[in-house]
Design a protein that fits this description.
Blueprint (H helix, E strand, L loop, with lengths): L1 H8 L8 H22 L2 E3 L8 E2 L8 E2 L8 E3 L1 H16 L1
Antiparallel strand pairs: 1-4, 2-3
Helix pairs in contact: 2-3
């Protein structure tokens, strides 16, 4: 039983436990998304795929996309949160 505990308690070959690697990977992904929100705040609309016009399935008529209002672009969710915190911070000072 002691051998089993010793085998499961040893860290991975890299020297860090697996959960710490997972946490570092999540932190890196989060920092990457923050950088994207900072430098590229606008992305293509998912509904119309950046075309600005939407064509429902089975129809020939194209109409302006309701989500992006025909622009073909939208503000990222992370950037919306960023802007909200900036407004709150500016109002507090």
């Amino acid at each position: 039983m002691d051998a089993l505990r010793a085998a499961t308690a040893t860290p991975s070959p890299g020297g860090l436990p697996w959960w710490l690697w997972l946490a570092l990977l999540g932190l890196g992904g989060g920092l990457y998304y923050l950088a994207e929100c900072r430098w590229w705040p606008i992305t293509d609309c998912r509904k119309c795929e950046g075309r600005g016009k939407f064509q429902p399935k089975g129809r020939k008529v194209r109409r302006p996309c309701r989500r992006c209002k025909g622009t073909g672009s939208r503000l990222r969710f992370g950037r919306k949160v960023w802007n909200r915190f900036a407004r709150v911070r500016k109002a507090a000072s």
